[in-house]
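Exercise: predict the fold of this chain.
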Amino acid sequence: MNNRGQLLISGALIALALGTVGVYVKLRPGGEEAVATGHNHAAMGGGTGDAKPITLDAESARRIGVAYATVDSGPMMRTVRTVGSVTYDETRLVDVNPKIEGWVEELYVNFTGAPVRRGQPLMAVYSPMLIAAQEELILAARLARESAGGAAAENAQSLLDAARRRLAYWDVPADEIERIEGSGVPQRTLTLLAPAGGLVVEKDVVEGARIMPGMNLFRIADLSTVWIEGEVFEKDLALARVGTSVRVTLDAYPGEELAGRITYVYPTVGQEARTGRVRIELPNPGLKLKPGMFANVEFDAALQAHALRVPRGAVLTTGTRSLVFVRHDDGVLVPHEVTVGQAAGEYVQILTGLSVGQVVVASASFLVDAESNLGAAMKGMAPSAPSGASDPHAGHTMPPDTTDPHAGHTMPPDTTGSQAGHTGHAAHSAPGGL
């Protein structure tokens, strides 16, 4: 047979041998399981759920930045930060409105922001009603003086008292009424005085304007004390209590901190922002705080007076549970499952899983967890027994079937007759066939 035929027959035999070995490996007991578990990805990616105790020497702990802390019991303090704005003290606002109809003859306070003091003249008003009331006063005063006594004198005095009250009810000052009564001459205009001191924050009148009873002409605000109204999120409203000390800073005065107290917590919550308002009263010397300014407000609130706590960095949280690595007396770091409560400042409350005095990993906990999971993954990847013990046939070559030398072989079609086919077998069995 030529060399080309020998090579073709040899290649076919090698392919048949490889196919036989593959079928054997696949169908041997445990074959599929061995293939499926050849790479244990579950062991390699276990996360904190596969964390195991580990031993970490001092040098390794120093290298990865591990720090320790002791579980203790103490107050849980939370700092609440919010924003607010400066506004008027509503108890120190005064509106000026007339009780008579008339015209402004002269305006003495003629711009918004003007400072006024109590009793200061604001405007001179001409009013026919006032002139009539003054004439009644003058007439009643003359009748009272001319009455000889008896019932006539009593009636005259009653008329005089009524005329005085009418002018007083119209905010005419008492000394002005006395002057009109003494002079006997009615005044063409009447001067309206400021009922309170402060700053004019609203002005709705000009000189020559007609005024009506009840019209708001001025609004005067006393800014010696101002309010700051802060917006507190709904989850922090329970911590905002009347009397709580607060710290206030304003962008207008960087580096300056003002101290105040919460004086009122409003009883409603905004539907859109889900925030509630708190009121803070602040003295305002020099009128530095101006209504409309933005302010930053913060205050400390105690969640619990005594709570079991650890540093925030000690807790490793997954989607379903939380772990803390506890250092035992022999130096082994053991993961403990814990139930956490509220977080405040640099501490986290521990409800269950730890006790006072235990030493825990306070920083670099994620590195310790990674080291622990790596050890668990490496153990999961190591074989549990030699492959020969699990499969007595592993590593052995399948012996040839001596009962049928042609079993498992597929012969090519005999195109040259039976003698050519037997020649192929002879070539296969000859020592120098290949």
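Check your answer against the key: The first strand starts at residue 54 and ends at 55.
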